[in-house]
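User: My advisor, Dr. K., asked me to get a structural model of this assembly before our group meeting. I'm new to this, so sorry if the format is off. These are the inputs:
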Amino acid sequence: KQEVTQIPAALSVPEGENLVLNCSFTDSAIYNLQWFRQDPGKGLTSLLLIQSSQREQTSGRLNASLDKSSGRSTLYIAASQPGDSATYLCAVLIQGAQKLVFGQGTRLTINP
Amino acid sequence: SQTIHQWPATLVQPVGSPLSLECTVEGTSNPNLYWYRQAAGRGLQLLFYSVGIGQISSEVPQNLSASRPQDRQFILSSKKLLLSDSGFYLCAWSAGLGHNEQFFGPGTRLTVL
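Assistant: The format is fine. Below is the predicted structure of the whole assembly, which you can bring to the meeting.
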């Protein structure tokens, strides 16, 4: 059974810092990995999608990496801003299914 | 561009009452459609998915059901709500076959009293 873990559960940093969010998964048989952002009471916004054959994807100040063999992904946020405050979720699409398996998320707070 | 709508945004229902949540997608054809539930402390859980009209797959046993009467319409229903059905219900879509990105709607907050 695929399990996805995100550490830390919460993170608070001052504005301007670079930071890394971690995601690990137990079964490397995945199609892809997706990072999402969720603001309180809102739906999920897709940030980055990494296919299983890729090692990283970049969008603006965000960079996501994937090491499928070790079951790990990281989301790097450069020059953090208060507007980056949200919960960040990673999810893997498991092979042989249409199912995204989610981590519990990291609640990020950027302090001005 | 594609957009996904859900309604209602919030709903308060008594135990034992029926439920109908609606999700529609615009700007794409033959999408895969998904219903997820996000409950406090339990993360996001896939409830149903559909790869075409009338085709529904259920991921977890429960008193909920789903239907897809039209290509871009996905409905979540219950005949009798339980307290445990409370949560945040999210609809999502992805483009057809393949390992594509999933896009989520704004969600419906359901409280069962």
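One thing worth pointing out at the meeting: The mean pLDDT of chain B is 92.

User: Perfect, thanks a lot.
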